[in-house]
Amino acid sequence: MKVLVTGGLGFIGSNFIRYLLERYSDVKVINVDALKHGANPDNLKDIEKGERYNFVKGNISDYKLISKLVKGVDIVVNFAAESHVDRSISNPYSFLQSNTIGVFVLLEAIRKNNPKCRLVHISTDEVYGDILHGSFKEEDRLKPSSPYSASKAAADMFVLAYVRTYNINATITRCTNNYGPYQFPEKLIPKTIIRASMNMKIPIYGTGKNVRDWIYVLDHCEAVDIVMKEGEKGEIYNISAGEERTNLELVEEILSIMNKDRDLIEFVEDRPGHDLRYSLDSSKIREELGWKPRHKLKEGLKKTVEWYLKNEWWWKPLADERTLHPTPWKLKW
User: Residue 330 and which of 132, 226, 285, 286 are 20 to 30 A apart at CA?
Assistant: First the structure.
């Protein structure tokens, strides 16, 4: 089986490629990545010369390149995306280009060059917007709050339209917040681990009461694998672990694991359009496809803390610019 993974040098994409190559001896992976923000060649440095892995530098908005790559592959798994909400607020155009136009180009390339190819499009829980009570189901309306989530919602609509209009064999997954090895240092969990290890203040937006459901990245990879093999055409599958925490609770849990004082926490000016709570109902993938997460949050956080403390070589070249400096608008840290 030949799988084309887009955005495979990013956090989740690189973990997924490792997962595939370790789990299946008959899988060959082509990884196309534009090496933009969020991509890191070091994520797959140890397998880059493997016989079953091939890297191609390129953008999914490049129709000529993508048309060539989709020929002869059995499955495309699309992780390629600009994903940082803060950056979408300061520069929304790049998110439209990568997350919406890029998916349109990918769909066109499949339609015209390999219509039997299966597509698994990786979306996000943020397309639903926030919810104060209960959990979103796959059929709920979309209400994105940021340029990032709007660009992902638009891409989802294109995927569903191509299923309906052109009979493309595509499926969408929407997952909650991931954490684990190889996540960029600017994200909340690695930023907290890195700054705490250096006894630096941990910035938390607003009151810290914003709630997210956290899932260990390898549990997400397993879910995508199951959807890739057994998911139904045109269906959407929510993926969540049921591990909801406020941002403040999450940071406190990390500090506890690291034996660091809570005094490191520092509240900063909230970001624009900050959703209060995300929550997904993942009963569909659990009941229909038999998936369930393997990691509890505390176990996954311990593994993640250990990985970052042992792999300073990986994050230190990135941390000065993206973790130890303020985000684009005015903050107090």
Answer: 132
Question: Which CATH architecture is the domain 185-212+244-276+296-322 placed in?
Answer: Alpha-Beta Complex (3.90)
Length of the chain (residues): 333
Residues of the chain whose pLDDT is less than 70?
83-86, 88, 320-333
The CA distance from 189 to 251, in Å, is: 8
- What backbone phi and psi angles, to 5 degrees, belong to 320? -60, -45
Taking the whole predicted model, whether its pTM rises above 0.70 is answered as: yes
Buried-exposed string 286-301: b where 16+ CB fall within 10 A, e elsewhere = beebebebebebeebb
Element (H, E) at 266: strand 265-268
59-68 core/surface letters (b: 16 or more CB in 10 A; e: else): bbbbeebbbe
Amino acid at 187: K
**What is the CATH architecture of 2-178+214-239?**
3-Layer(aba) Sandwich (3.40)
- Residue 66: what pLDDT? 98
Q: Where are the domains of the chain?
A: 2-178+214-239, 185-212+244-276+296-322
List active site positions.
125-126, 148
Helices (H) and strands (E) in the chain, counts: 12, 12
25 CB-contact burial (10 Å; exposed 0-12 / middle 13-18 / buried 19+): exposed
Contacts of 248 (CB under 8 A, 6+ apart): 204, 207, 208, 209, 265
For residue 317, the one-letter residue type is P
pLDDT at 86: 65
Give residue 55's pLDDT: 97
Residue pair 333/61 in contact (Cβ under 8 Å)? The answer is no
